[in-house]
Amino acid sequence: xxxxxxxxxxxxxxxxxxxxxxxxxxxxxxxxxxxxxxxxxxxxxxxxxxxxxxxxxxxxxxxxxxxxxxxxxxxxxxxxxxxxxxxxxxxxxxxxxxxxxxx
Length: 103
What we know:
Elements: H1 9-19, E1 26-27, H2 28-35, H3 39-51, E2 55-60, E3 69-74, H4 76-91, H5 95-102
Helix pairs in contact: 1-2, 1-4, 2-3
């Protein structure tokens, strides 16, 4: 059974970071640094987002004996998903402004 709960703030932040340049492949480490998440939180999130079709993943071969690196980027479905969840946030008026209007 699929649950339709709202995405976490951390998930939205990861999607927003990827949406800043949707065609660009990003390393998990770079995303972790940008959104200030530890790898134990970020990588399971990236796997779930990829499983849902919101992210594309690819392996980049590394030179020499270094292991390959995993890359991520937003899919068109991921962009639509992000737009659907952030649109209500963009239209919301902060409470501080509402209180000033009431006064």
